[in-house]
Amino acid sequence: MLDQTQCPDCQRINDVLSRVGDRWSVLVVISLAQYGTLRFNELKRNLGISQRMLSLTLKELERDGLVHRKYHQTIPPKVEYSLTEMGQSFREPVNALGQWSLDHLAKIDAARAEYDKRQDS
Q1: Rounded-to-integer distance, Cα 67 and Cα 90, Å
Q2: Which residues pair with 39 in a beta bridge?
Q3: For residue 1, is it within any domain?
Q4: Which residues does 32 contact at the CB level (< 8 Å), separation at least 6?
Q5: How far apart are CA 73 and CA 118, in angstroms?
Q6: Domain that holds residue 37
Q7: Could you give the residue ranges of the DSSP H alpha helices within 36-80?
Q8: Which of 5, 55, 114, 116 has a Cα-to-Cα distance from 12 of 20 to 30 A?
Q9: Is 5 part of any domain?
């Protein structure tokens, strides 16, 4: 394991990977990449995520510069979310990860079933 003197940016890298590797963050990026600009409730419906978790995820993605939040002063207020340029650049690794998952679903299901069978024995 590397210590901070060997890898002074390790903690910062860990923080970034924690965000971009988070299940909900990845799903928000996929949804915005697929549909473009979406409102909060559209994202909530698409993902089947709780309001609190979506709010937290969007705030963190906005803080990290991956998501842009646009507030419209209308009645009722309208808030839209879209990917920033950096968020757009995250599409490629997310798509690769998603494709890998699709390509290996059957093998993962088989491995899980085999593992569960061994655990039941």
Answers
A1: 11
A2: 80
A3: no
A4: 38, 43, 67, 81, 82, 83, 87
A5: 58
A6: 10-120
A7: 40-47, 51-63
A8: 55
A9: no
